[in-house]
Design a protein that fits this description.
Layout (H helix, E strand, L loop, with lengths): L15 E10 L15 H13 L5 E4 L19 E8 L15 E3 L22 E7 L5
Parallel strand pairs: 1-3
Antiparallel strand pairs: 1-2, 3-5, 4-5
Length: 141
Amino acid sequence: REGLRDGHGDPIRYDRAFYFEEQDYYIPLNQDGTSKRFQNFATQMPEMLEVMRGLIPTHIALNGTYGALTADIRLEADVGETVLMLHSQANNPSFPHLIGGHGDWVWPYGKFANRPHQGLESWDVVAGGTAAAVYTFEQEG
């Protein structure tokens, strides 16, 4: 409610926020790798449950669609902008990596009331969890 705080208790200020949602899908596939088609939801259940029990996702999507973070609607920041990056993962651990920089402030385990870590290039998002990082972009790229 009072927002994120830095390691000294001062409020964190940022110019924009980016949200990264990572979701796993377990879909029965044909031998050629295409998705199987079923007449209705009930007829797909036995095969769907079999795939789910294997605990190996057939698809992993970021922000719900292919290319969501890299296509025409990609997330961009200008040099000097401070960005809050929120990352959640539904079922598996994830390990965001900030190429070319280090997070100014990082909350890797969704413990946003805790004192943040500083200077992390990579951090953990636990299965079913979320993480946040604040970074000021210092160069283009």
